[in-house]
Structure formats: structure tokens, C-alpha cells
Amino acid sequence: MKRRNFVQNSVLAGASILTTGLLKSNSANANTPNVNNGKPFNLNYGIHDGMFKNHAGGDFIDQIKFAYEQGFRGIEDNWMGGRPVDQQKKIGDTLAKLGMTMGVFVQPGLGNDTNLLASGKAEYIDKFIASCKEAVEVAKRTNCKQYTVVPGDFVRNLPIGVQTGNVIEAIKRGTAIIEPHGLMMVLEPLSDNPDLFLRTPDQAYAICKAVGSPSCKILYDMYHIQRNQGNIIPTLNWVYDEIGYYQVGDNPGRNEPGTGEINYKNIFKLIYDKGYKEVVGMEHGNAGAGKAGELALIKAYREADSFI
């Protein structure tokens, strides 16, 4: 689902004036020192709701404005599809004013283990198609170009080749809905449990090649890939031409870079050198609590982003 450039400098300048005034009205934000004085990062890391709640409060829009002042230029929101329509529009408007980019949201109305596209049954395909139509509307409100799709669980009484064929056919039908709108579904291999059908990037790669649409790509979540098979940099290179989106989370713990075993500075440099300009989703928790934990998270991203 890609790819977009940032808005014009004049809009960014106006957004900066707008947010400065708004942030000054919030004493918690105004008194918080910036890490690196709010300089934009080399990659477009996308925060999520709750990541900066101790500094900016519980309102996601206030957190977005705080993140902008810290140098972040993207967000992602798994549950955007479940937010009220007026809130979706407000978030989209805020991002547009700030010159920020919306990353992925999760396919509306379907859970990781409820799609069951591998079954090929009409009841699941119909729900999937309805969800694709709803995703188009959510994307319009938030100026989003990507959303996450998980095919669901294995269907153990069918051969793996038949299951794969069923998934491919379902995805083809979904891309026919979203492709005219410039929207992209990104298929996410997961490590949450062994019942989930899609588990490795090479498996997703084969599906994307078979679907053959620019509206079907891979969500390369490094936390899940590290847990399932490791070998992140070679694997990334193998499937790169079908990657549409990246997500971050260190392992173990699923927190910010530098809290686990993954060398994110090297990985971020690789992504940057390949020319990726879109959102890198920060799909993880904060290792530390409170304001100190949030500032430590920003510092961790500054360190991992210092590859130039």
C-alpha cells in the first residue's frame, strides 16, 4: 500500500506553529525536554496509542502532537477500524496538519484466528470481503494506504497445498476490492501460536507472488520473524521486493530496540539504504514505566537510528 511523500514544507511550517501553541497549553508537554531537540529521525517510526500517555495524557491526538515534537513523523493504530468515525476523521486531520503519515491498522472486524481463509468456506470469504470494503472507508478517513491482514488458523483436515490455494484465492478477491483505491493489504506472519497459518516471510512471499497484485504485500514484523526463525537480514533481502511494511519489537520482551537481542541499528541501516520511506511501526511496549520509561524509549530510537 504505498508509497507517499510528506506534505509540502509550507504545510509543515504551519503545522509546527499550530502544535507549538497547542503543546504550550499542556504543562506536562511544555516542561518535557526533547531528546535531540525534536529532530526528525532518519526513518519514519510510527508510534501507537498509549506509548506517550504519561507525558501527553490519554487522548491519542495529544500523544500524536507530543510525538511530533520529539521528532516522530508517523503513527500506526491497530484498532483504528473500531474507533468512532468522527475520531478517525480527527486523527486523519491532525496527521495532515502535522505532515505525519498513518501506518497500518488491523483489518476491521476480524481477529488473528477468526479469518480461516485456508478453509475456503464461503462464510469466511464473505466476511473477509466485507472487511476489505470497510477497510477502504477507514483508509479514506485517515489517509492510510496499508492495513494488516492475518489469514487465520490452519485447517488441519486439508492438505497444506489446498489451504494455500484457498488463501491465495481469497486474497485475490480482496485485492480486487481495494486495488482501485490505491490501498494495500500487508500479510503478517505471526509467532503468537502454532495454529496460525501464516508464519514465515517466505510463505507470505509465495502467496504475494501468486496473487500478483501491488495491493498484496508482506508485513515484515521483526519481532515475530526473530521468534519463528531469526536470520532477519538475509530473510529480509530474500523477500524484499514483496515487503510493503515493517514493524519493530525487540526479543525477548517485545519492547523498544536495545532491550533484547536484535541489532536494530544494522537492520534500520539496511532498510534505509534500500530506500524505504514509509512508516516503520513501533508495535511494542515500553520497557520502563512512567515518564522516565517514555524518555528512555525515545533515547533508544535515537541510538538505533544513528546509523548515518
Structure description:
This protein is of the alpha/beta class and 308 residues long. It has helices spanning 9-24, 27-30, 53-56, 60-69, 85-98, 122-142, 160-178, 201-211, 222-228, 232-239, 264-273, 290-304; strands spanning 44-47, 74-75, 101-102, 105-106, 146-149, 184-187, 216-221, 243-247, 279-281. Helix 1 (9-24) packs across helix 4 (60-69), helix 4 runs parallel beside helix 5 (85-98) and helix 6 packs parallel to helix 7. It is globular, with a radius of gyration of 19 Å. 47% of the residues are buried. Mean pLDDT is 91; it is low at 1-30.
What's the topology here?
Layout: H1 9-24, H2 27-30, E1 44-47, H3 53-56, H4 60-69, E2 74-75, H5 85-98, E3 101-102, E4 105-106, H6 122-142, E5 146-149, H7 160-178, E6 184-187, H8 201-211, E7 216-221, H9 222-228, H10 232-239, E8 243-247, H11 264-273, E9 279-281, H12 290-304
Parallel strand pairs: 1-2, 1-9, 2-3, 4-5, 5-6, 6-7, 7-8, 8-9
Helix pairs in contact: 1-4, 4-5, 6-7, 7-8
Give a concise summary:
The chain has helices at residues 9-24, 27-30, 53-56, 60-69, 85-98, 122-142, 160-178, 201-211, 222-228, 232-239, 264-273, 290-304; strands at 44-47, 74-75, 101-102, 105-106, 146-149, 184-187, 216-221, 243-247, 279-281. By secondary structure, it is an alpha/beta fold.
Which key terms come to mind for this protein?
nine-stranded parallel beta sheet, 308 residues
- Helix/strand-derived class? alpha/beta
Strand content: 5-15%
| Topology order in helix (H) and strand (E) letters | HHEHHEHEEHEHEHEHHEHEH
CA gyration radius, whole angstroms:
19 Å
Largest sheet: 9 strands, parallel
Helix percent band? 40-55%
Number of helices: 12
Average pLDDT rating: 91
Strand order of the largest sheet: 3-2-1-9-8-7-6-5-4
What is the first-to-last residue Cα distance? Answer: 27 Å
Which runs of at least 5 residues are low in confidence (pLDDT < 50)? 1-30
Identify the quaternary structure here: single chain
Number of E-type strands: 9
Characterize the overall form.
Answer: globular
